[in-house]
Write a structure and sequence with these properties.
Length: about 120
C-alpha cells in the first residue's frame, strides 16, 4: 500500500509541475499529511525530483494536509484549478514558511493567467 501511495504522490507532483513549469527548478522539502479514518500518514517530498519517502518531514518548508480520499482524487484527476479549489474550500490546508507559500501561490497564479491569455487569443 505504501508504495502505491508513494507513486500516487509522485504522479500528483509531476502533474502539478507539468502545469506550472516555473516551479520545476524549485529546491524545496515539503511534508504531506494524508488523513484517513483515524489515521494520519506522513510523507516527505523533496524537490526537484520528486523524491518521496514515508517519513516525518522535520525539515519541510511547507506542509500540506489533505484527506486521503480527496488526495487520491486530486492526484489522479486534479488540475491546478482543482487543487486551488480544495484549498479554498478547506479540503486541503498548507502551513509553513509564509514567504515560500506566497512564492508558490504567486507562480501558480501567473501560470494560470498565462494559460487564460493563451486561451483568449485562440
Amino acid at each position: 500500500m505504501a508504495s502505491d501511495t508513494k507513486s500516487l504522490i509522485e504522479t500528483a507532483v509531476n502533474r502539478f509541475m507539468e502545469e506550472v513549469p516555473a516551479l520545476q527548478p524549485l529546491k524545496l522539502v515539503a511534508g504531506l499529511e494524508l488523513r484517513g479514518r483515524g489515521d494520519v500518514q506522513m510523507y516527505r517530498i523533496e524537490l526537484p525530483g520528486p523524491k518521496v519517502t514515508k517519513d516525518i518531514a522535520a525539515d519541510a518548508k511547507v506542509t500540506v494536509t489533505v484527506s486521503r480520499s480527496h488526495f487520491n482524487e486530486l492526484a489522479t484527476k486534479g488540475r491546478v484549478r482543482d487543487w486551488r479549489e480544495a484549498f479554498a474550500h478547506g479540503d486541503a490546508k498548507a502551513t509553513g514558511i509564509e514567504q515560500v507559500m506566497k512564492l508558490i501561490v504567486n507562480v501558480v497564479e501567473r501560470q494560470e493567467e498565462r494559460a487564460r491569455l493563451r486561451k483568449a487569443h485562440h
